[in-house]
Amino acid sequence: MKNKPFNLFLIVLVTIVSLWSLWPTWRDYSLTRQIDRFASAEDSLKFSLAHREEIENIRKKSLKLGLDLKGGMHLVMEVDQIDLFEQKAWNKDAKFDAIMARVRQKASSSDASVIDLIVSEFRKENIRLSRYFYDIRNTDREITDKLRKESEDALARAREIIRNRIDQYGVAEPVITTQGSRRLIIELAGISDENRVRNLLKGTAKLEFKLLRDPEVLLRVLDKVNSSLAVKQPLVAVISDTARTGLPVGQLQPAQAEKTPQTGPLTEVLTVMQNGSVYVPEDSKDFVAQLFRRNDVSALIPQDSELLLAAKPDQFEDGKNYYPVFLLRKTAELTGGVITEAKATFSAEGAQPEVLMEMNSDGTAKWARITGANIGKRIAIVLDGAVYSAPVVQSKIPNGNSVINGIESVEEAKDLEIVLKAGALPAPVRILEERTVGPSLGADYIRAGAVSLVSGFLAVTAFMLIYYRIAGFAANAAVVLNILIVLSVLAGFSASLSLPGIAGIVLTIGMAVDANVLIYERIREELDEGKSVVTAVTAGYDKAFSSILDSHVTTLAAAYLLYTFGIGPIQGFAVTLMIGTAASLFTAIIVTKEIFGFMLSRNILSARSFG
Predict the structure, then answer these.
(1) The predicted structure's pLDDT at residue 172
(2) What share of the chain is helix, strand, coil (3-state, %, to 5)?
């Protein structure tokens, strides 16, 4: 029995590649231990800064830990399909609003399909779906099928957009699965800024460019709202508070004013500057925003207009934050669908973060026409129902560029870049459930997983040495290489190791030994028949091959089905099982056989070596 040069080369190559793939993981562990050993935080910070590039590079290439080991976020999110269908509807009236309100109420306490709830409510009212959806000539069945297709597409699109946002954020191997007809299950390992991720996922990223109405129109509308909701008193136009002078965007000086009686709901919460700009203090922002969304208030606003607040506040000289109020045309001049590129950067002055946007050819042509026709007017950039900026059009913009400013931090600018690149969600999403796995709990799981892995390895290797003696060394070497291959593949493909993954590795250890047991027992049978060691080893491998191949192929098939139809932890188990099974086949058929060839060439192996 001679060693084949190609087999030896393959074993050496696999071993070297495995060690090379796991080197960043070991280096990351070593540097982390070294940083932890510093006596002071200042020394550790200096070391981290000095080795910053190396630390960042190795952490990108090192083996990632799953949510259950490293800690992170588990989210259950729901796509608001009712909002989606309300956007699709036409000819909406009070009856439609009442039906959809009942559907929303039932959907909040039920996992039933939104479409089934809509169909049920329409049947109760004896109203055809075609009255509000699609073509009047469509039957209810045809419309139901179309709505169901819209629902499925919305869920699939939301899943892909959220995945794109997470990928651009930099989370290693997120787990995103669907549950039912409107829910997404999301697991993100190693998250440190939970609030930032939460906002990143929830943002619909519905970008719109809308024209502002004149300040005089805004004041008349607010006065009408205030008067209709309370006693007929004029809206307070100006509040003479010297602490509120000097806005950073224009250094506007407030006019002299007097307070009106505290009668209307808006009387004491709005401040109007001399040029007609209106502001609401931060502590009254939610109250005013909810007021603007009320149906009775919307009825008081011109049909082609809407009231919105700014996304970010301005700070007055009193140190308090005030949100600008805007009256915009309801119909958008342009939407975010034309955006092809977004980039977080700094303003020309280099101090304020902003996001530069580029448009496609269609958007560029429309943007040039819109800006050319509205020179001297203000166009608001609205994202998810909040005004980020409302610059005055100075001249026609022919190159399709636009800017979102009013951004507080570089992180926020980067998040805006991410959501704009990923695209707008088809409907709003909301978080139904959120669980956070702390790093300390993850550390306990790591210890438990390591103990189980080491215990299983020691038990198996001890058995092989006791029962098969020298031949057991070959099997144990194959087991070690098997584990190295599994971990190196996970690290090389940026996959994450979870508790179920550790369970998969423990199972592959048993499978690797099982394959060697089949071979060794065959060799024992051949030796009992009086054959030489060389002949017995060759016959043992040849006769056990079909059984080993069958068992490994069926295991691979089962693992593939688990990965295809399973979710979350089941998929983690299936991945490591598939890698381990393939590695086990390689180590059992090639590695141990070459080790025996080496032992036979050195007269180390004899009939007594197999126990």
Answers:
(1) 62
(2) 55, 15, 30
How many CB atoms within 10 Å of residue 579?
Answer: 24
Contact 10, 17 (CB under 8 A): no
Q: Give 261-293 pLDDT, tens digit per residue.
A: 445 677 778 888 877 788 999 888 888 888 888
Element (H, E) at 381: strand 379-383
Q: In what order do the strands lie in the sheet with 339-346?
A: 339-346, 353-359, 401-404
Pairing state between β 175-179 and 183-189: antiparallel
And the tokens for 220? Answer: 């008349």
**Residue 301, Cβ density class (10 Å: 0-12 exposed, 13-18 middle, ≥19 buried):** middle
pLDDT in tens, 293-350: 887 888 888 888 999 998 888 888 777 888 999 999 988 888 887 888 888 887 766 5
In one-letter notation, the amino acid at residue 371 is: T
List Cα–Cα distances, 406 to 248, 345, 412, in angstroms: 12, 12, 10
The answer to whether 500 and 453 have CB atoms below 8 angstroms apart is: no
Q: Provide mean pLDDT across the span 74-94.
A: 85
- Extended beta strands in 268-352, E state: 271-272, 278-281, 305-309, 314-315, 321-329, 334-335, 339-346
DSSP H/E element including 389: strand 386-389
d(CA 272, CA 528): 102
Contact predicate 439/76, CB 8 Å: no
> CA-to-CA distance for 360 and 370, rounded, in angstroms?
15
**Mean per-residue pLDDT of the chain:** 80
Backbone φ and ψ for 495, nearest 5 degrees, come out as -80, 160
Q: Do strands 379-383 and 305-309 pair parallel, antiparallel, or not at all (unpaired)?
A: unpaired
Q: If you search the block for the tokens 């090192």, which residue do you land on?
A: 62
The architecture (CATH level 2) of 73-202+430-437 comes to 2-Layer Sandwich (3.30)
> Is-contact 537 474, C-beta < 8 A?
no
Q: pLDDT tier at 242 (50, 70, 90 boundaries)?
A: very low
Fold of 205-424: Gyrase A; domain 2 (3.30.1360)
Residue 342, classed as helix, strand or coil, is strand
440-610: CATH topology is: Multidrug efflux transporter AcrB transmembrane fold (1.20.1640)
Half-sphere exposure (Cβ direction) of 458: Cα atoms closer than 13 Å:
6
User: Strand ranges (DSSP E) for 33-115?
Assistant: 64-65, 72-79
Contacts of residue 462, Cβ cutoff 8 Å, sequence gap at least 6: none
What is the pTM (predicted TM-score) of this model?
0.56
- For residues 596 and 474, is the Cβ–Cβ distance under 8 A? yes
Confidence of residue 557 (pLDDT cuts 50, 70, 90): very high
Structural tokens at position 349:
């002055």
Strands (E), 160-206: 175-179, 183-189
The 429-437 sheet, strands edge to edge: 175-179, 183-189, 72-79, 429-437
* Domain locations along the chain: 73-202+430-437, 205-424, 440-610
Look up residue 64 and give its two tokens: 């990632």
Residue 242 in contact with residue 286, Cβ under 8 Å?
A: no
Residues 490, 583: Cα–Cα separation, whole Å: 13
